Amino acid sequence: MLYWYYMETDFTLSVVHEDPAFLVVDKQACLPTVPLKEDPPEKITLLSLVSKQYPEVLLACGQNAWEGGVLHRLDTATSGLVVIARTQEAYHSLKHIQKADLFWKEYVALSSLHTDVPRPGFPPYPYGDPVLGGGKEIAIGSLFRRYGENRREVRPVSMDSSKQLLDKTSGTWYITKVCYSGKTESGANQFTCRLSSGFRHQVRVHMAWSGWPLDGDTVYHGKQAPNLALRAVAVRFLHPVTQEQIEIRVQ
């Protein structure tokens, strides 16, 4: 396991795993993963930091050239592992692996606040309480739709929703597997969340839907906290060249 560090303003780049075909990088919270299309070139993102050390990641890209070889994004407030392709061939191979649901991400999430108060735009929650599951993994599944001012939020949509709501979704069913891990020293409830296909805010929304909004997630009515209590701690996927299964973890 290799560690490289590159400091630019307040952000430090940590490369956790280096391979000729890809990098696995530990993103800090509050750092955007990639720029938006309209962002100025000088905007600091995870991609801009990585490209200082590995400029080839800007040449491996898909539909959006400004996102380089980044295979998946984390919300700006979320910290943890991001996989970035270093070659065009690796990018296409890893994208095929993702589409085959063979690319898994694991998160650690904390929630100190339980609530069963219905939230605007959320359908009734049909799954079990992760805490009451007592360590048993619960699969939370839904479609998703954009919601609210400038469509900045996300809402789950169940299959028995009205046609009007169903037509507003992407048509893809997303699943978050949630397992209760017990209480931390601070008294917060800790959860392990796993997924393959991902949608914007997926873990945050599914946890809030289950009655356990994440600490620091004021968008979905979580407890006030300095930071969002969500970290991507592991990735598992097939190597884009050798097809060997790779699993990389951080604390």
Task: Find the structural class using helix and strand composition.
Answer: alpha+beta
Which stretches are poorly predicted, pLDDT < 50 over at least 5 residues?
1-8
Classify the oligomer: single chain
How is the biggest beta sheet arranged?
A: 11 strands, mixed
Report mean pLDDT, rounded to a whole number: 93
Q: Percent of residues in beta strands?
A: 25-35%
| Rg over C-alpha atoms, rounded to the nearest angstrom | 18 Å
Family: Belongs to the pseudouridine synthase RluA family.
Domain Pseudouridine synthase RsuA/RluA-like: 23-208
GO molecular function: catalytic activity, acting on RNA; pseudouridine synthase activity; RNA binding
Protein name: 23S RNA-specific pseudouridylate synthase
Describe this structure in words.
There is one protein chain. 13% of the residues lie in helices and 31% in strands. The protein is built from four helices and eleven strands. The chain has helices spanning 46-53, 88-99, 163-166, 202-209; strands at 5-8, 11-18, 22-27, 79-85, 104-111, 138-147, 153-157, 174-183, 189-195, 230-238, 245-249. Strand 10 and strand 11 form a beta hairpin. It starts with a strand and ends with a strand. Residues 1-8 have low confidence and may be disordered.
Annotate the secondary structure layout.
Elements lengths: L4 E4 L2 E8 L3 E6 L18 H8 L25 E7 L2 H12 L4 E8 L26 E10 L5 E5 L5 H4 L7 E10 L5 E7 L6 H8 L20 E9 L6 E5 L2
Parallel strand pairs: 4-10
Antiparallel strand pairs: 1-2, 2-3, 3-4, 5-9, 5-10, 6-7, 6-8, 8-9, 10-11
Characteristics of this structure?
alpha+beta, 31% strand
